[in-house]
Amino acid sequence: MWGYLRLELLTVLRDRHYLFFTLAVPVGFYLLWSSVFTAERPDPMTGLALPVDIMVSMASYGALGATLMTTGVRLAAERRSGWLRQLRVTPLRARTVVAVKTLAAMSLGLPAVVLVGFASVVYQGVRLSPGQWAAIVVLLWVGTLPFAALGTLIGSLVGPDAAQPVTIGCYFALAIGGGLWLPLSVLPEAIRDVAGWLPSTRFAELGRAVAAGHAPSPAAGLVLAGWTLLLGALAVAAYRRASVAR
Amino acid sequence: MEAISVENVSKNYGDVRAVDALSLDVPAGQVVALLGPNGAGKSTAVGITLGLVRPDAGRVSLFGAAPAEAAARGRVGAMLQDGALVPNLTVREVVGFVRGLYPAPMPLDEVLEIAGLTALAGRRTGALSGGQAQRVRFATAIAGAPGVLVLDEPTAALDVAARRAFWTGIRAYAGEGRTVLFATHRLEEADENADRVVVVARGRVVADGTPAEIKARVGGRAVRFALGDQPAAGLDRLPGVTGLEVRGGVATLRTGDPDGVVAELYRTGLRVRDLEIVTPALEDAFLSLTSKER
Questions:
Q1: Under an 8 A CB cutoff, do B103 and A91 touch?
Q2: B chain contacts of residue A93, beta-carbon cutoff 8 Å
Q3: Contacts of B82 in chain A (CB under 8 A)
Q4: What is the span of the domain harbouring residue B224?
Q5: CATH no. for residue B253?
Q6: N or C, fewer C-beta in 10 Å, chain A?
Q7: A85 contacts on B by Cβ (under 8 Å)
Q8: Which residue among A12, A92, A246 sits closest to B101, beta carbon to beta carbon?
Q9: CA-to-CA distance for A111 and A115, rounded, in angstroms?
């Protein structure tokens, strides 16, 4: 189990695409946005000072992306390449494979959260209490669960060629609709109407609530739990279908 | 208890019957070749044996357990045709990882040694040649010291020298009382490396025996020499000759006893030039066995 987790993490951490898209991009965007949006007043919808608000957005964006990108595309590739078949003749159990892949995908979002947070402290002088930082890291770790399920669903349904565009499509739609690229307060009404139902909005809300000094709303927890159950059930069914002996 | 027991297994893909009531028992310690042309159903049979393909009928057990159960206990190692490697890892990391999954594996350095990977241990899997990658897949198959090793066309991507080194590795592994089942369409590979050859055609077993027995079933070997323009009359009546073919001044005498035929040949008074005893007979055996049932 731990050997497999180590292997999964090593494979991704040595991948330059991962490092670029999930670390360099969110940090770069943070530096850019926090320099461009310099208004003194807080964001009207979240009530957070802009450097803090953008920090949470970009940390969420990076974690979401890392989780999605390291599940779907890799799973599709491993289904095609025969590596998963190869594992099935070893003592490693199928449920361990799924559990480890989920855990790895969730954990691979953490470096982005930590780095963006670090950038906000160094570059914009953001100050939160140690307890708040810890809570943000933990919540943005647990909160990636629905995205790990979505990635597993994509990787089980489509082949390696389609997995990349489908994943990126979901990634960008969730990021934009969830107010991670631009704050929801500047987005059109239509997007704002659906945003509350998106897991990405609620995912970022976990961090925004902690940064604002209070607990996340029950609605955020419910929406995330709902998506996790729905996508998780679909992912398990699709993964079974994709991997059973036929 | 048989190491591998395949009972009456069938598998259809749509209208195509890939495996047709195939049965095969392999006692522990035997090295068995599953020999057949492409499309004979070897890969499907291998997949069923490993529990990767679900048969429509019949059952398989490995050491008395279902394939998945045997795999869970670490008794199975396999080299599949499409088994790819994970990227961004070194040879040592991949082999070490698979090795670590098994309850009683071989020492890592010994695995690398047998597979001829000692010098490549630190290299990333993405930077390997086809033959080197194949050796890594072999290493992952044996790393756990499984009692049953199943190989599907293991030398397909290898050149002659690599093929020889590969079989040396397999023999070193099998020498310790382990069971090996390998699928191949290469006749000499089955002949040279197996204790027993099971010939498969259209999903069925058409012959099963030692390499020598398989050859004997179609008249053994052949004595061939340059006849030139000498008359061929009477050659087919020499003791021990079961067939005669003269083509382009070269006579081929089929026989089960080439030594006796050579002795007789010199008594005929013919000028015998370019004499050779050929053993392409397994190739012929193979063709006649696999086409007989058509």
A1: yes
A2: 72
A3: 81-82, 85
A4: 218-292
A5: 3.30.70.100
A6: C
A7: 52, 80, 82-83
A8: A92
A9: 6
Name the residue facing B52 among A12, A14, A245 (closest C-beta): A245
Nearest by CB to B88, which of A11, A82, A89?
A: A11
Structure tokens at B216: 């004997």
Does position A88 have pLDDT exceeding 50, yes or no? yes
Strands (E), chain B: 2-13, 16-27, 31-35, 57-62, 76-79, 148-152, 179-184, 196-201, 204-209, 221-226, 241-247, 250-255, 273-278
A227 Cβ partners below 8 Å, 6+ apart?
Answer: A146, A149, A199
A59, two tokens? 């940390």
Going from N- to C-terminal start, the domains of chain A cover: 2-243
Of B182, B215, B248, which residue constitutes the final position of a domain? B215
Nearest to A115 by CA among A146, A144, A136, A94: A136
Q: Cβ–Cβ of B101/A81 closer than 8 Å?
A: no
Mean pLDDT of chain A, nearest integer: 91
pLDDT in tens, B97-152: 999 999 999 999 999 999 999 999 999 998 888 888 889 999 999 999 999 999 99
Tokens 């035929």 -> residue: B261
B188 and B50 housed in the same domain: yes
Q: What would the mean pLDDT of A131-136 be, rounded to a whole number?
A: 96
CA distance A3 to chain B (A): 6
Q: How near does any CA of chain A get to the CA of B144, in Å?
A: 9
Q: Residues of chain B with pLDDT > 70: what percent?
A: 92
φ, ψ of residue B83 to 5 degrees: the values are -70, 105
Please name which of A67, A110, A70, A111 lies closest in space to residue A199, comparing C-alpha atoms.
A67
Chain B CB contacts of A3 under 8 Å are 97, 100-101
Answer whether B83 sits within 8 Å of A10, measured CB to CB: no
pLDDT reported for residue B293: 46
CA dist., res. B207 & res. B203, Å (int):
12
Residues B133, B167 within the same domain:
yes
Looking at the complex, report in whole angstroms how far the Cα of residue B125 sits from the nearest Cα belonging to chain A: 11
Q: For residue A243, what is the nearest residue in chain B, using CA coordinates?
A: B52
Q: What is the pLDDT of residue B96?
A: 95
Instruction: Mark yes or no for CB contact B93/A82 under 8 Å.
Output: no
Q: What is the ipTM of this complex?
A: 0.86
Q: Give the integer Cα–Cα distance in Å for A176 and A164.
A: 18
Number of structural domains, chain B? 2
